[in-house]
Amino acid sequence: MNILFDEFADVPVGDGAMRMHLFRPVGAGRFPALMFFSEIYQVTRPIRRLATTLAGQGFLVGVPEVYHEFEPVGACLAYDAQGTERGNALKVTKSIAAFDSDAQAGLGYLASHPASTGMLGTVGKCLGGHLALRAAFDERVKATACFYPTDIHSSTLGEGRNDDTFSRLEELKAEALFVWGRQDPHIPFAGRQQIRERLEAVGVSYEWLEFNAAHAFMRDEGHRYDPVLTARALSAAVQLFHRSLR
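Now predict its structure.
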């Protein structure tokens, strides 16, 4: 399946616009839509490749620039110490309300896109895994895949480092997939257990995969990349979306 990967839309948000990069199968047709939230580095080459892979499974994929208020349009942060410092600083500078309004606007855009069936899912990695989970509180979202989502157990996302995602898990009606690396220092065993116990307590419908892998093992640049585990994680996500977004 050939993929269109160079389209974008500037989605109105607040007093400005959020650039959303679009990926979809070539040709006529309507597809379930996925809002794909990136890592702290924005829409990098590894993120674009992963979005292309998801689109190749029969989805319209929209990837927003999560730091559009702070960075020039099209900007990516480098996978180095300076880029990491900047990305981590911005995730606690931007307000939770702004993250949430971006998600609402993006989902609305994807639901009404001519190539969309109107069925919506969310997916994300790292910061984006957390944002994908929050976006799935929206009742329009039927499934979410969260790859090593950070800051859920500690409730430290956003301005003031005091998000309410963990306390709101009982609101999650979408079917969920969580994928973790056991050697990930950002979400230690105790943090993962805290999340899982809460999911059980509030009756969320979810799948849970843990691999012997480091943080960012799905990023196909750098020494932590594990292609075999990435394929397994993506297969689980695609099965979830095909099942839930029909």
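The chain is about 35% helix and 25% strand.
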